[in-house]
## 1
Amino acid sequence: MLFGALEAGGTKMVCAIGNENGEILEQVKFPTEIPETTMPQIFEYFKGKDIKALGIACFGPIDLIKESPTYGSITSTPKKGWSGYNIVNAAKEALGIPVGFDTDVNGSLLGEVTWGCAKGLSDAIYLTIGTGVGGGVISNGKLLHGMLHPEVGHIRLPFAKNDPGKSVCPFHDNCFEGLAAGPSIQARWGKPAVELADKPEVWEIESEYIATALMSYALILSPKKIILGGGVMHQEQLFSLVRKKFKELVNGYILTKEMDDLDNYIVPASLNDNQGIMGAIKLAIDACE
Amino acid sequence: MLFGALEAGGTKMVCAIGNENGEILEQVKFPTEIPETTMPQIFEYFKGKDIKALGIACFGPIDLIKESPTYGSITSTPKKGWSGYNIVNAAKEALGIPVGFDTDVNGSLLGEVTWGCAKGLSDAIYLTIGTGVGGGVISNGKLLHGMLHPEVGHIRLPFAKNDPGKSVCPFHDNCFEGLAAGPSIQARWGKPAVELADKPEVWEIESEYIATALMSYALILSPKKIILGGGVMHQEQLFSLVRKKFKELVNGYILTKEMDDLDNYIVPASLNDNQGIMGAIKLAIDACE
């Protein structure tokens, strides 16, 4: 059985055809322009592919409340043309099949809990640290929506030791995204993260912010695994630094087997950067039920 | 139908008999000494009361993992005699009825979502700020356990403006509990909270810590309501201060109907300090299913 998957991002739209095992059989990309030019190309791609359903893992914020009159739409994005666009209704109309829908980060997490490093876990978090910071959460075996959906990148953090501390977030003076996402690294050091790999002072500060945020997630969500993805986390030296600082910060307050084995608690994404599109396949599978 | 309820705290044990409507028909208290002297009194009280099940909302940390060999026990408490005591097994043996079990704060939240201000909500948090700070969480309609259970009082916070900042938590230099629980207020100002009601500078700092923590909970858990209980929150002037600072901190980043109505989003506990024992009644009811 075939399923369509759309990972809808602010710069590109990844479309794939997959099967019930999460195998990606084919994949294409389109640049994200405006709905009127971008979406018809996507729908054209999926037509005639004999897919049973489409799953959309979408950039946000989005309306996930099933009872809402605007369910399925992108809400207050600054991205021109997309604010208020109902991507779910448009897809249903164009393709006439069931459509599953969630945030991009919940999609990535769903990929990891279905086929990746968090397989079968009831409680986990997937965090992406790149141009922004976002997170998907599964809680009691279901992707977390609640009032809206988690926006874990915008929690307030204490300034790291030796950080002059200037947030690049337009909303918050000292939030995690504003202090630790890619643009913040660039603003602090004058170069993109990828050119700073050999500067320990960069990763000292970065890992303190990440570890502090992870401690909050661990204490509030009690996840069984924390998965880190996104461009900044391609700096693999960060993992051991983050685990070390996390351990120092928690300071023995939580006693669980997970805390005794941080190498398997704080882990990189496991699906070769396909976690998002694979999660979208699972959203499509679930939409058939 | 009658149910037994035990709110097991570090200083007192509240025992009650209730019905399926959460009505408390009778109630007694015993001081918390050691299990060998305290628990027989409790079991004696419940015997012959014709209760169908017992619900225990218990101080922690506790083992809530059903598959664990130590499920039902209090784990690493400093409270003499209780570390490793299996309160669930003891109750089952003494009374021969089903026993429901959760944290004290999850119990309070369960009372509020069953009969109180959060009735029917799938996602909410109950926070108690008193001698310590703890929180219960419901997520996707179920009390959150995950790896252990939430320990939301120990997240790191930035020091408040004008706070010399000294945490009284033995584990953490700048966690919420260490900076804002009752003992911290006493350490900072030399008097207990209740004697400081007319000092605005006390509540300025206190409300900043609370608002910052609530912002993290709101962004990470996406709750539909935040309920505040505990001794410190008996200072009712805190509510308007906390809502004001919360609004400033979120700064329009989340757009939901809840954010437009903070008076109904950040609210006091609603069950006259009976939320814990009423939650324990519900734990008993659920244990029969």
Note: Chain B is about 35% helix and 20% strand.
## 2
Amino acid sequence: MINFQAAPEQYKHWKLTTAGPVATLAMDVQEDQTLAAGYKLKLNSYDLGVDIELADAIQRIRFEHPEVRAVVITSLKPRIFCAGANIYMLGTSSHAFKVNFCKFTNETRCALEDDSNHSGRRYIAALNGTASGGGYELAIACDEIYLVDDGNSAVSLPEVPLLGVLPGTGGLTRLVDKRKIRRDRADVFATLAEGLKGKRAKEWGLIDDTFATSRFEESIAKRVSEVTKADSQSQAAGISLTPLLFEATADTRTYKYVSVNFNREKRYANLTMHGPESNQPTTAAEIQKLGDAYWPLQAYRELDDLLLHMRVNEPEIGLVCLRTEGKIDDVLAVDRVLVAERANWLVREIVLYMARVLRRLDLTAKSFFALIEPGSCFAGNLLELALAADRSYMLNSPDAGVELATSELNAGALPMSNGLSRLQSRFLATPGRLEEIFGLDRSFAAEAAEELGLVTFVPDDLDWEDEIRVAIEERTSLSPDALTGMEASLRFAGQESMDTKIFGRLTAWQNWIFQRPNAVGPRGALTNYGKPTQSQFDYKRT
Amino acid sequence: MINFQAAPEQYKHWKLTTAGPVATLAMDVQEDQTLAAGYKLKLNSYDLGVDIELADAIQRIRFEHPEVRAVVITSLKPRIFCAGANIYMLGTSSHAFKVNFCKFTNETRCALEDDSNHSGRRYIAALNGTASGGGYELAIACDEIYLVDDGNSAVSLPEVPLLGVLPGTGGLTRLVDKRKIRRDRADVFATLAEGLKGKRAKEWGLIDDTFATSRFEESIAKRVSEVTKADSQSQAAGISLTPLLFEATADTRTYKYVSVNFNREKRYANLTMHGPESNQPTTAAEIQKLGDAYWPLQAYRELDDLLLHMRVNEPEIGLVCLRTEGKIDDVLAVDRVLVAERANWLVREIVLYMARVLRRLDLTAKSFFALIEPGSCFAGNLLELALAADRSYMLNSPDAGVELATSELNAGALPMSNGLSRLQSRFLATPGRLEEIFGLDRSFAAEAAEELGLVTFVPDDLDWEDEIRVAIEERTSLSPDALTGMEASLRFAGQESMDTKIFGRLTAWQNWIFQRPNAVGPRGALTNYGKPTQSQFDYKRT
């Protein structure tokens, strides 16, 4: 079972140090500390374990070190920054694991960019040696890239020429959409196994500058100092992210606010998210004092951990029924505080994090049904769960007091990967509906919710059990692959962004290639990399 | 060998009739007239042969019947509009054929929408019976959808529940992005094998209206009459699209303006497009008189036919070297006439068609290198070939007079699928470069072209042969699948559109699913459809 929790004192592969406004995240991958057997992490190559630490480090910088304004990502190994995802790990992994591995590493890089875009921290890739494949893809997720000019070090994306697969962590999309490198140059670069060294790489826009070995450290320090001087210093003290505690049995996993039980035989899970207690903080100062025990932070951290757990460790669970329990007023009270205190750094980080967790749900290859029943609290931020679900069922029972409610957080603070709110994406045909819903400013019982288009179905007491049972049975009987492709197409209506291009277009092509004999067959390039046997292609273009 | 040319008098499956401003395109698929053995086209299901006729019909309406303002698409079979792509055909086809089949049918539906969007013809789907799968996808490509209310007929997308694959012809994307149906309803609809009948289908936005059997024909006629009355009548007479003539040998195919030779051993082709003669028409009246012998129309029709031929009949050709031959001034003269006469219906249709052919090239899963040599004429519309190529090589020989030139047609009249011109897409990083290039208003020799970023490499006489030879050898040695995924990612920088979502996101997922054992394995749903054996899934979510 893969554990997605990490903490700096237990990092095996990264050193996170901070000095005032500067954090340094240095990669020093331990060859033998792999997540699975059968490969060695040479040359700062990585597996999922390495990336779990990286994701944790970026998250901790945001919450524990708000004073940090610049993050330097570099390597402690001489002459090598990072060789990318470990090829032997990929070669020996199942298709499903490869796909989930790439999804997580993509989310980590998007989270890094989310920090840069929304919290203004500047990420500086200090490439003290060659950055190839995923190593360069990590660099290109940063705001600035500097490469040592030692006559040898290069940046490269050798996946296509060496492995017969794509750079799987957003590299191609970021080349042309983020750094806006000309597509013909991107074509040359992505087919050139040895990559490009400093001068040419700079000319083509692949890096921002190159410095001689003797001047490298000093030049990075100078650039960092420019960044931190230009930025206003934060006097805020961070909060600690403490380990998430949960109890697990064979069929359950129970955190404080989030719990799940698995019906393995029927291939679905019941996930319940509990709303906040009534005595939540009402000011930023109180939130800061409460730290990671504050409901929105703790509940969404638990949900995040559970989503990752289910993706990788519960592959046969195809459907997740989402429920909430609690008081609508308590959720709305939390949302009001989050909105009122949004200028506070911690509140901003919490809301940005909630948005990332909800995006993780959007990107999870499982079906989600929201079940809105008596005692539920699908309100404000928790309403997003119902809106993120593939469909929702709300009990239509006038006496049961089942309601939904909106808050200001539904109006754009928790955007999907495409930049739209879930309500915007839902009402592309009738954008006026948003004003109507927010104008009404109240909670909605089943019939009103159905009329407004907020829920899919509103069965009554008599029908409820049968309808849910049949819906679950039908969903879990369908082809899991067709559902994954269908959900990936239906969930992202409207505009696309760099993120959705990475998770939609690029990832779908990579998943296709990850199935092709030319990559993973006995004569495929990925299978045969580093072996005495040669890859041999079926050259038919498809 | 599959032939992509068709003509109404030879149609087997469609009846195209026109009456003043109304065309009727009626589907009457002949079960036994299949393109391959092993299946029967029951219930108006289709194979590639049926769709080649449909594409031809839409094209002919545009050129041969400019007076048509409304096109009614219906069926001559009782109680069935169209059952979609033939499942047994899909089940017995190779992966590569399935992918290319879907690409062509997608292009056909995009061409229909292109006619509606740019030439204002209104497409009315008159569903006189059930439209399922590709049948409903054809309807949803139309502007308006009317379904007979006979107590039985429905619209449906049964691919996910019945076949374990996606609706492969843009259905999912058009549901949420064109008709902007709520994603939860789209989710229900796309998992409901039997689909929805009139009332519910209308309520959910899947159709525009439903009429009782007795009133169906009259209601369609009424709607058609509203459309044609609202539109200004065109008095223009059409031109004939005559059969394209070519000579073929084992290794060549030679049309009047386009020729290709295949180096099969080395897996590449040399494609040469000849520029116009000097005595081209200078007015719309002269163009009308010349008809389909007018260079832009004939040359691009030839290119279109050749691209389709190479996709399906030459799968092992992985790289196409694009060359042009002719005089830059002659190409620019044609472009000036096309711009000056753009208000003319025929000129508009010709330019829109050139744009579609160039988009077909963008979407072709082969690498393209443009080779810009002495005697070439990469100017104006032909410059788009170099810009569409994955990279370009221009001979840098001051004495050889090799030049490129821009025309007004490069400024947006020939857009890519994402709506950007190829120059816009190329210069996302430096949008000012466009003004600079158009401001200079002249032709560019190699060094100037390189400086402006119009070409990738400018080898001199000494290096040219070796550099091209090595580039070809390297390209054709790479994994064809990785190249397809890479090119699909790099060619479409910048914004996405419904079309690019269909060809990028949706198609890539479908291609992935088309490889999955749950669809095409011995126990897969596609393989076992209609057989006494049951499909059996590996339920792991990926």
Note: The two ends of chain A are 37 Å apart (CA to CA).
